[in-house]
Specification:
heterodimer; A: 494 residues; two-stranded antiparallel ribbon; 3% strand; B: mainly alpha; two-stranded antiparallel sheet; 2 strands
């Protein structure tokens, strides 16, 4: 049994366990045990991976396993990880764990809620371990569909509208993606050995004419999930309506599926087209970055602020990937991790605050620091990470991205880098404004009795903050691990 | 007299045997003894299915001078149809045991089996004559089945509509076949290809012939009968119409396109290209507006027929595999949906989407079944529908129909919208007057369990697809 398959098996077993669990205690027990196992597994994998690398194993993917699934179409169940996927698995495990802690108090149909939540994790983990295009796409879609019910049933606000919009837009993206995958398969089969395996297709290479139309398809398909302008509109509504843990998982991990897919499939398999056509997407992602940040400034709903900030930050991920050089891509992966952790922290905190104040409108809040110092302090830390304070993860990621982006000497890239940089200023504006309105100023009388965080809330926040600070203080082991895995992709590009 | 020819007809003969046994039972059974009719019918059909699904029972070859062909792929499709019919039988108890229909229950099983026999003949036909006999045998009893609930105006009207359109369509088809005979001088499938040259008359003949099957498949523009008939017919019959009858027609259409009109491949590909786009898109647009679940599933099944043909348009073995696999998965998914609708309609009389609001609180299991059935129809993983859609798209993409695949894919997003409408009703919407709790009978439970297992596991077992692929053929 391959260690990676455990990442899919454990959530499946959790689902089976949930099926038989009857009382709330049993349900909580099943999900907590499962999520802890996943977290331990992810940490163990990272350690084992680093060990294997330092022992001198240079294969592109480690821990590989391969089983034939559909022979006529060369579909295999094929798994393997490199440094990037290990990092993403670690991120997902942390977010799933904290997400479950954040939904500790779910009382309405808890069993069904966690069943869908586990299915979502199956998709997420499966996606990051897949090396086979079909398997990858399968898991990608598995991750999308539970969102509909999670938002529709357990969400708030105009949840039905948001859930439908989110599902249809993301499914539209996956329609483009499926066509792209079929195109990749048949064109590479015509050019060499037919295979659905990413590494083999990269080795064979695709004819440039095919790449020219496949690249935009695949990039847009994944980009929709990565909040690529103008297909980002599902994101604010979806995040605002989703229940806390789902927002965390969605903004924290699911949107990374988009970035990871762009980088692993679009750029890696179609390097020539990526160089030719990257300018179109640089413009679009540049707009995402700036537009998201400026939209966040005018929002008054905490979740909308954070959702638009996610558009901006995820736009930056795609923007950095399109720079097509080692430094910027390294930054992109770091930004995925950093944004995943901090946006999860944000959504968790917003959920906790909303659970107490029953409003998310910042105009109706103020002075919360006095009654809930722990939550307030955590919110400030998350905010500082978001605007890129040195010592926290945001700084490391954004710094690397902009340094990498500025390595391009031509005017086009430079102008867009500078434009994207302005988003940092806008970020500072909306973060500080929110923190000011939310936590300081006069306290409303009805909020005087509000309690501070409970144990599971504290654990969620502390865990995420530790990870954020960890990346910020000691980024080297992570960026080395990522950088090493990026080099074959960069070589491919040259 | 030489009886060796009959060894190829084992499956047909054993089906006739089942029919005769049931007929005798129906004629001579006491009213009390007839209560067991359902399980006897299911048991006999089940034995028949299992016997012919076992490897090594079908002998490959042709009988009666090439009139009748027995080939492995045909046997696979027959088995799929058998399973579908068996599932319909299992679901039939509820509506068949009602006061008005109970005395005629034997007829339902006999009529269904005789249409099944017609489909067998269509599949195994090696000559247009046998094909027409099969087509008519499969169509005419269906009209009686549609009008089965004859004191219900809707059912009677649906029966009349069905028979008129069916006869008109077979008339067109027959005219086409006569033109084919006129231009080629033969009706044998093996001899025609040598004479098919693509003259205008032959093209006219082909189009007319296609109309007959397009009617059975309810492709646009021959789809108008579908919603009315589906709505009026007893739900069990609707299920049979939408799955078994459609699956057989799709396969037969494809084999004839492959075998007989292989020379006109570019012409029929162009024709199908248009038909597929119109069928899928139009049906999806109409489905969005439906309130009655049977009409809703009628439009959904029209659009599914478009997807089924997507496998046929490639003209390759991969396409044939995709099509047969699609029919198999579609059968499980659609019968699961119809199973739920039948039992709910029977026990509560409710059939509109709004009636299904908040079904989840009173019927969690049925809701779950309905949900996975609809997700499977929409092509959402990890359900089998995703795999079947993928294979169909792969087959079409292999031949370079990328634009067509894109249109079909965007249509799946559209279809997801209306499938989600039902799921939303069941899980999210609130209802002051939800459907009351009731107990389902064991036969329905069994059939729904089989369907669910099919939906959940067919996709993960690569062997099923590979076995179908092993016997596929194409240009």
């Amino acid at each position: 049994m391959n260690i990676l398959s455990l990442f899919v098996l454990i959530p499946l077993l959790m689902m089976a366990g949930l099926f038989f669990a009857a009382r709330l205690k049993q349900i909580r027990c099943v999900v907590t045990v499962g999520a802890s196992l996943l977290l331990a597994l992810a940490i163990g994998l990272a350690v084992a991976y680093l060990g294997k690398r330092s022992a001198g194993q240079t294969a592109e993917m480690l821990f590989t396993a391969d089983t034939v699934w559909y022979a006529p179409l060369h579909i295999h169940y094929s798994v393997g990880v490199d440094g990037v996927s290990v990092a993403m698995l670690l991120l997902s495990a942390i977010i799933v764990f904290t997400g479950i802690l954040a939904s500790w108090k779910t009382e309405f149909l808890p069993k069904e809620y966690f069943l869908w939540f586990c299915l979502l994790s199956v998709g997420v983990f499966g996606f990051f371990i897949s090396v086979d295009l079909f398997t990858m796409f399968l898991f990608y879609e598995v991750a999308l569909i539970p969102m509909y019910l999670l938002i529709g049933v357990w969400g708030s606000g105009k949840k039905e509208y948001s859930a439908m919009k989110l599902t249809l837009m993301l499914m539209g993206g996956s329609a483009l993606l499926l066509l792209g995958i079929l195109g990749i398969y048949f064109f590479s089969a015509a050019a060499g050995v037919p295979s659905m395996n990413l590494l083999e297709i990269a080795r064979t290479g695709l004819p440039v004419e095919a790449q020219r139309w496949l690249f935009p398809l695949v990039f847009t398909g994944f980009g929709i999930l990565g909040a690529l302008f103008p297909f980002h509109t599902w994101s604010p509504d979806g995040h605002a309506s989703a229940p806390t843990a789902v927002s965390m998982l969605h903004a924290g991990v699911l949107m990374k599926l988009g970035g990871y897919g762009c980088f692993r499939v679009a750029i890696y398999l179609m390097p020539e087209a990526a160089q030719e056509l990257s300018w179109i997407f640089i413009i679009l992602t540049g707009i995402s970055v700036v537009y998201g940040a400026y939209s966040a400034i005018v929002q008054t709903d905490l979740k909308y602020i954070n959702a638009y900030s996610s558009v901006s930050h995820c736009g930056l991920v795609l923007f950095a990937i399109l720079m097509l050089n080692q430094t910027a891509m390294n930054g992109a992966i770091l930004q995925m991790l950093s944004h995943g952790l901090m946006t999860a922290l944000f959504f968790a905190l917003i959920g906790m605050i909303y659970g107490r104040t029953h409003t998310r409108d910042i105009r109706e809040m103020g002075g919360l620091m006095k009654v809930m110092p722990f939550l307030g302090a955590c919110y400030v830390i998350a905010g500082l990470a978001s605007l890129g304070l040195p010592g926290l993860s945001g700084f490391v990621a954004e710094m690397t991205i902009f340094v990498g982006a500025f390595q391009h000497a031509d005017t086009f890239h430079r102008i867009f880098t500078i434009v994207a940089c302005t988003s940092i200023v806008a970020t500072a504006v909306y973060i500080l404004r929110t923190v000011g309105k939310l936590l300081y100023g006069p306290l409303r009388r009805e909020y005087l009795q509000l309690p501070d965080a409970a144990w599971h809330e504290r654990l969620t926040a502390i865990l995420l903050i530790t990870a954020i600070a960890g990346i910020g203080v000691a980024p080297l082991w992570l960026s080395d691990m990522i950088g090493e895995s990026l080099s074959p992709i960069i070589e491919h590009l040259q | 007299m030489d009886f060796s020819n009959f060894t190829y007809l084992q499956e047909e003969l054993s089906l006739i045997g089942v029919m005769v046994l049931l007929l005798i039972y129906d004629l001579f059974g006491s009213p009390k003894g007839l209560k067991h009719f359902q399980w006897v019918a299911c048991l006999l059909l089940g034995l028949h299915t299992v016997w012919h699904a076992l490897p090594g029972t079908g002998t490959e070859g042709s009988a009666f001078g090439g009139m009748y062909l027995n080939f492995p792929m045909g046997n696979i499709v027959k088995t799929i149809l058998n399973i579908g019919t068996l599932l319909v039988f299992l679901q039939a108890r509820n509506w068949l045991e009602s006061e008005k229909t109970v005395i005629r229950r034997g007829e339902f099983y006999l009529l269904t089996l005789s249409t099944l026999l017609g489909m067998y003949l269509m599949i195994s036909a090696g000559n247009f004559l046998l094909f027409v006999i099969g087509l008519e045998t499969a169509s005419l009893p269906l009209a009686a089945m549609v009008a089965f609930d004859k004191y219900n105006n809707g059912s009677a009207e649906a029966g009349a509509k069905y028979i008129l359109s069916a006869v008109f369509a077979s008339g067109l088809s027959l005219y086409g076949i006569s033109l084919i005979y006129g231009t080629t001088g033969t009706l044998y499938f093996t001899d025609i290809p040598a004479h098919v040259t693509g003259t205008p008359l032959q093209l006219v003949a082909f189009v007319l012939f296609l109309a007959g099957l397009a009617f059975k498949l309810s492709l646009v523009p021959f789809h108008q009968w579908t919603p009315d008939v589906y709505e009026g017919a007893p739900t069990g019959v609707t299920a049979y119409l939408s799955v078994v009858s459609k699956g057989a027609a799709a396969f037969v259409l494809m084999t004839i396109l492959y075998k007989v009109f292989g020379g006109l491949i570019h012409q029929w590909q162009t024709l199908l290209y248009g038909i597929i786009i119109i069928t899928i898109t139009l049906a999806n647009l109409f489905a969005i507006r439906q309130q009655n679940l049977k009409r809703f599933l009628a439009y959904s099944s029209i659009s599914q027929a478009g997807y089924i043909l997507l496998g046929g348009i490639s003209g390759t073995a991969l396409g044939m595999t995709g099509l047969v696999y699609y029919v198999l998965v579609y059968m499980f998914s659609n019968l699961a949906a119809f199973g739920v609708i039948t039992i709910v309609e029977q026990r509560s009389g409710k059939i509109t989407i709004d009636d299904y609001n908040e079904l989840y609180t009173t019927h969690p299991r049925l809701s779950f079944v309905l949900m996975i059935a609809l997700f499977s129809l929409a092509g959402i993983p990890p359900f089998a529908g995703f795999f079947s859609k993928f294979f169909i798209f792969a087959a079409a993409a292999e031949q370079g129909f990328y634009v067509l695949v894109l249109i079909a894919l965007l249509n799946t997003v559209l279809s997801l919208f209306y499938y989600l409408r039902v799921i939303k009703a069941v899980f999210i919407n609130k209802n002051e007057n939800p459907i009351r709790p009731f107990r389902s009978d064991n036969y329905t439970r069994l059939s729904l369990t089989i369907c669910c297992l099919g939906i959940l596991f067919t996709g993960f077992i690569g062997l099923i697809y590979e076995n179908i692929h092993l016997f596929s053929f194409g240009s």
